[in-house]
Amino acid sequence: MAMGALSLFSFILASQLSPKWYGPTTTTFDLVTTGSPYDPEVNDVRVRFKLKGKTIERLAYWNGKSWSVTLLAEEPGSYTAEVWRNATRERTLKGTVQVSLKSTTDFVRVGDDYRTYVKENGTRYWPMGHNLGWRGGADLPSVPDSLRRMAANGMNWARIWSCHWDGKNPWWGGRGANIGELDQTSLAQWDDITSTASATGVRFQWVLFHHGPWSKSVDPNWNDNPWNKANGGWMNTPEEFFTDSRAEKLSKAYLRYVVARYGHETGILAWELFNEVENTEAGRTDKWSIIESWHDRMATYLRTIDPYRHPVLTSSSLRPKLYAGADVYQPHGYPPNISGLILGAKVLTDKPFYFGEVGLGFSNPSKAQQREAIRDAIWSGYLGGHSGAGQYWYWDVVQRENLDDEYAFASKVMREAGLRPGPEIRPVRVRVDAPSAGDLVLRPGVGWGPSTQRSFDLPRDANPGATGKMSTFVQGSGHADMGSEFTFNVDLAKASRLVFRVGSAAKMGAKLRVVVDGKVAVEEDFPAGSGDTQVNKDFKVDLPAGKHKVVVGNAGTDWFTVDRYTFEGLGVAVDGVGAIDAGKAVVRLKANVDQATFSLDAEPVSARLADLENKKIIDFPFTVKAGRMVPGMPLPSRDCLLIMRLK
C-alpha cells in the first residue's frame, strides 16, 4: 500500500464544555378554552417566561386533562410565567417557575462544515446503531428497553417510527367526528421513549410520517387510514395528503404538539418528516412537485416553532429538490453487497451524508451473513468517510441473534485506537500482496437503481468501490438507461468458469444473453407471466486460458436479477480496503480462505490489529525491509482491521 511518509498526527478533541441548558421543568395549569385543545388555530396556547428583563416563549400542550408547558432554559433562576392564547394574555401563573438543575446532555447540530454532526459542547457526534422502528415481537424488548440495550453495547443512534400497528401513531386514533384528536395512550409511549433516549445517550430520528398510510401498493395502509373517506374521513385518494388544506392543518397540529411536548428532549436527534416518500402513491406516480413543496412547507414550519433547533430531514431517494429544505442526506439501500453500496456511493458534500437503512437484498440470509452485513455497514461507513455508519434495518435479528457485540467491539476499537470517523477520512487504494486462492466473487452494491459502472477489468475492479456502482438488476429495453449489460475483461493464466444465478425475473419478461469474445455462449428466455418469476437457476460459462471479454446482458423487455458473479480460481487470498485517518492508515483485510498471509507497502511506526471476528485487539509487530513489510504476515481470522501509525 504505497502511501508515502506521513508526519505523525495528534489532534485535540474539541473542548469538553458543559451543556448550557437548565431544566427541564414542566408546569401544569388550567385554562378555559372552547373548541378542540389540539387545534392551534383555535387554541394557540403559549407561555412566556420572564427573568431579569428577558422573555422566552414555549408552546403549551393539552395533556388530556389540563394544559402543560415544559421549559428548558439557558439560564437558571425563578421565572414568572404568563399564559397567552391566540396572541392575547390570559393569565399570570401563581408563584414562579424554578429552573435550577443543570442538564447533563445537550443537543446535536449540523456542524459549521456542513458535513458532520456536532454536539453543543463542541465534540463530534458520529451516529452508529441500528433502526428501532417498533417493538420487534412480544419476545423482544420494548422500545425503551431496546434503547438501554443499545447504549450498553456502545450504540448512540436509533430511528423510531410513529406507526399505528404498535400504538405509536398519535394522530391515527381519532376517527369520524374525533379526527384531529391525538391519542394520549400513544403519547404516553413517547414520554417513555424520549426520556429514555435522553438518559441513555442513544439519540433517535423521530419518523413522523411513513409511506404506508398514503400507499395502496407498497406496504399499504391506506384502506385502514382514518383520513380515508371510506373510514369516516374526507380524503378520496392518498395523493391528496400533499395538497389538501385540512390534511395540512392536521399535520401541522401534530408537528406542533410533538415539538411542544417533546422538543426539550436531547435524545431526539432530528425530526424525520417522511420514511421513503417515493413509495407513497404520489411518489409512485411521479407527483414529485407536490411532495417537494410539502416537504419545504413542513420543514419551514418546524423551524419556526422549535426553540431547540433539532435538525430536520427525510429519508428517500436522493432527489435534490426533495432535500432542499433538509439538513441531512439519508438514502436507503438493500443490495447483496452492503460494503459495495456504501463505499461505491457518490457522497454529496453540502450536508451530512449517511445511510439510514441498509440490509441484505436477498431472501433468508444466515446468521453469519447478517453479522457480516452489520460489520460491513459500520466499517464501510467509517472507511468511506461518511457522516455516520450505515444503519442496519433488521433490529429484530440483532436482538434475537445477539449480534449487538458487533457494535460494542466497533465502539471499543474506535475509542482505543483514537479513530475519528467523519468526512476527513480519505479513502485510498490498497495493494495487498497475497497468493491467488479460491474464487473471485463480485457482489453488486446497488439494489433497484442505475448501474453507474458497467465494465470491469478483473481482478483489479473486484473492490467495493467498483462493484458498489453495479446493480443487482440487469435491465431490459424498458430501462436500458439503467444498465442492460455488464462487461467483464479477464486475462486467465489457466482455464476458469463464470458461474452466476438468476434469482428472479420481472412479470413483463426478460431474456438472458451471455456473449464471450463476440459469440453467444448462453441464451435463455424468462417468459412474461401474471407476476414476477422466481427463477433461481445457475448458469455456467467455461473460459479457457487467455484474454476474454465476457458480456452478461438482457435482450428482453424487463429486468432479471443476479446477486453475485463468480469467476472460479481467479480470487486472491486477501482483499483490502483502506483509508487515511490523520496520521493513521486503517485497512480492512478480508480473507477468502481459512488461513491467509499477506503483505503491504507501508512505513509503519506501530500497529494494532482488531480481529473483528474474535473481538480481540492485538499488538501487531512489523518487520520492514526497504519500506516494505516482510511477506508472510498471518491473519488471525478472516476479517481484521489493521491500524498503522505511519511515518
Description:
By secondary structure, the protein is α+β, with helices and mostly antiparallel strands. It contains ten helices and 37 strands. The strands form nine sheets. Strands 1, 2, 3, 4, 5, 6 and 7 form a seven-stranded antiparallel β-sheet that branches. It has a six-stranded antiparallel β-sheet with strand order 17-29-30-37-32-33, covered by helices on one side. Strands 19, 21, 23, 26 and 28 form a five-stranded antiparallel β-sheet that branches. β24 (510-516) and β25 form a beta hairpin. α1 runs parallel beside α2 and α3 (245-262) runs parallel beside α5 (288-305). The longest helix has 18 residues, at 245-262. It is globular. The two termini are 14 Å apart. Residues 1-17 have low confidence and may be disordered.
